[in-house]
Specification:
178 residues, alpha/beta, Rossmann fold, 8 helices, 5 strands, globular
Length: 178
């Protein structure tokens, strides 16, 4: 096996990184980690509370620490679902590119993301006009996702099962060519 043991999922919030990540980790027999969960655990409070009480810069610092701790010196395989903004940091992009065997960009349409982010987890960056915010975030981050991605999966109109299968097929096809 390649010295790099991580599969990292990137993409905007609501693109399915955590849900798909858990499925592919289970299918491959890998560990799974979500950087937002690691941040909340390290900070002792929710991501929303970190944003509201300490600010986005504090959150991003925790996020970089979490990504570094998961990826650096990894000896066992893991699937890491990153927060949507993890790619903002050049340090994070370097860590991800250097340590991940595969970096999968789950690319979703803004319309799909608006629907997916309406339910479930509170997302502090989406307070207000979610559609406008998601479009702006997409415009800002797409080049960074593209920079780190070794695989790009279009999730438009696809179920979690179909996206998970597409990721697994792409990873397995890539492994055949390494």
């Amino acid at each position: 096996m390649n010295a790099r043991h991580a599969i990292v999922l990137v993409g905007l919030m609501g693109s399915g990184k955590t849900t798909v990540g858990k499925r592919i980790a289970q299918a491959l027999g890998y560990e799974f980690a979500d950087s937002d969960d690691l941040v909340a655990s390290a900070a002792g409070k929710s991501v929303r509370d970190i944003f509201s009480q300490d600010g986005e810069a504090a959150f991003r610092s925790f996020e970089s620490d979490a990504i570094r701790s998961v990826l650096a010196d990894r000896k066992s395989p893991i699937v890491l679902a990153t927060g949507g903004g993890a790619v903002i940091s050049s340090e994070n992009r370097s860590l991800i590119s250097e340590h991940a065997l595969h970096v999968v960009w789950l690319d979703a349409s803004v319309d799909d993301l608006v629907v997916r982010t309406k339910s479930g987890v509170a997302r502090p960056l989406l307070d207000g006009d979610a559609s406008k915010t998601l479009q702006s975030l997409n415009d800002e981050r797409a080049a960074w996702y593209e920079e780190v991605a070794t695989l790009r999966i279009d999730t438009r109109g696809k179920s979690v099962s179909k996206v998970s299968s597409a990721v697994l097929e792409s990873i397995r096809a890539g492994a055949d060519h390494e």
